[in-house]
Amino acid sequence: MSEAPKLPPEFSPNRYIEKVSLATGEVLDADIQPKQLLVQNHRDYHVVDVYARFLMSRMVKHTGDPDRVTRGMKEVRKFGHKAMETLAKVTGASDPQKLGKTLLGLKAKEYYFRFKRLHRLLHAEIDERIARVRKEAKQKHAAAMKGARAGLRVLLTGGTGFVGKEIMWQAAHDDAIAEMVVLIRPKEEKDRKTKKVLRVVSPEERGRQLLAQLWLADHPACGKFRFIDGDIEKPGLGVSEADRAELRRTLSHVIHCAASVAFDDPYEASFKANVLGSLNALDFSLDLQNAPGSPFVNHLSIETSYIHGRQTREPAREDEVVFPRNFYNNYYELTKAMGSLETDRYMLERGLRVVQLCPAIVIGEFRTGNNRGDTKVVNAPVNAFGRARQALGAKSGNLLDRSKTWMIAKLACIFPGDASAELNLVPVDRVVQGIVAALKKPEAVGERVHLATDQRVTSEQMRDLCQEELDIKVKLAEPTLHRNVTLPLLTKLLTGLKQERLAGTLQTLGNIFGGYSEWGQPIHEVGNDVDVLGLSLPRPDSRWAVRMLCRHNRYVQNFGQIKDLDEISRREKVWGEFIDGVETKAKAPAGSLGAEEFRKHLAEGMDLEKFARKG
Asked: Within 13 Å, how many C-alpha atoms sit on residue 228's CB side?
C-alpha cells in the first residue's frame, strides 16, 4: 500500500491534535494522518467487527439503552482479550494481541487523540481576558448605535450560500442594520462544450442578481447592500487596499459565514476553506479592530455544532471543544473544529472580540421549507425518494423497461439509518435569527452558542414522514450492514444495469449520511441561544420542519430538478403566499398539518399546473 502524500506543514493535523499513550499518558511523537481522525478508519476491519456493530445496533433497538449496550460490549471485548491470552498459551503463539486481531478483529487501544491547547493560559487568566473583550465590545456597540451614522455596518462572507442568503433577507428587514457589505468573487461564465470563458460576471452584477432572487431589488432596503470583490482563501480576504481603508472607518461587525459544507470533500479542500479561510477572516477582523478610530465591535464566526464529532456519553458542551473518542464523521466536521480552536486563540492571545455560533444540520425555512435552491444534506435523500416515486408512476415503455424502472426505483428507496438515531435539524430562519441577534448582543462576545434544537427527529420518524408526504415506501437499512453488504451489492447490480450515476449517488448518500444515521448521535447542549441571544422558546420542532421540507421539495423544486435560481425564486414567493393563506385558514402552522389535510388545502388553494409555468 502506497503511503499518503505528505501534507504541507501548515495543513498538518499535528498543529491542532496530539496522540497520547493510554498506558503512560505521555504525548507520542507521531505524524498524524487526517484519515486516522475519521470514524471510518476505525471500523469494518474484520467480519467479526462488522457483525458486532450490527449486533449492538439490534440490542440498542431492543433495550433502548445505548450506554448499557456499550458497557456490555466492552465486557465482551475484555473477555475476548482474555480468551486470546489463554489460546495463545495453549497453542504456543507468542503474540495474543495479533492472534485476537486475526481471529476476532480485536484491536488493543494503545493511544487516544486530544486537541492541543493553542495557548498556555490559566482559567483565571482566560476569564479575565474574556471579561475584558466583552467590556470593550459593549462600549463599541453603544458608540455604534449613536451619532449621525448610527446603526450596525456589517461585512458578510458567504453571501451567495444558503445561510448567507437568509442573513441578507433578515438584514433587509432589520432597521438596526444600516449597511451590509457582501464579499463576492467574480464568476466566469463558460461555454458548456468548449469550456471557453465567455465573460466574467462582476461582484456588482452578481449582487444585483442575488437581490432580485431574494425579492429585494425593488425593496426600500435595497440601498443598504453593497457588493465588493473578495476571496476568503486569499490573505486580507482578497479585498483591495482602497476598500479595506474605507471598511476600517465604517464597519462594526464581520460575519464569517463562508465555508466548504461538502461532507465528502477531501481533507486539503476542507482545510483550505474552513481553516485557512477562517484565519484570513480573523486576520481581517483583527486589522479592523486595531485600526485607529475604528468602530469595529466584534467578529461572528459561523461554525457547526458538529465540531464535537461523535460523542455518545454526555452532551456536547457549548463552553469547550474536546476531541471525540468516537472520532469525526468527515473532514468538514474536523476542519470546522480546527477553525474554532483558531478563533479561541485569536480571542485569548490577540484580544480579538469574537462570538462563535454553531448551527446543527441546517434545512429550509420553518414555515414554508423554502431553501432558495439548496439541494444538499437532507434535501438529497428526500429528492432521491421523490424521483423514485416519479419513476414508479411512469406509464411509458414496454413491460421490460417498466420492470427495470420499478426495480431501480425500489433500490433507490433503501436508506441507511438506525431507527433510534436522532438527527438535529434546525431551520435556516432560526439559525439566522441567532446570528442577527448576536450582532446586537455584545455580551455574547467570548461565548460559543449552539443554534440547534431540543426537539430532534429520529431516522424512523424521518422515514415515516417521507412515506406519508411523498407517497412512497422507504426502507431503513441497518447502517453497518448497509455499507458492508447491501451497498456493494446494490452498486454492482446498478452498474450492471448501466445505472452508474444512480450507483454513484447511492454510494455518496451512504458515505455522507451513514455516520449521521447511526445510533449514539451527539446531544448538543442548548441554552445560550435563549439566555445569551434572547431567542424565543419553544425551539423548532424538527418533525414539522421535515414535513415542510418534503412539501417544498415536491411542489416547488420538483425534487431538485428545478435548478434555475430565478425560477425557484418565483416559485418560492408564490409558495410562501400560499402557506400564509393555509395558516390563516387552518389557524395552525402548516407543518403541524398531516399530509392528507395539507393536500386538501393544496387542492383548494393552488393551481399546480399554473404554478409550474414560468412567467
From this structure: 19
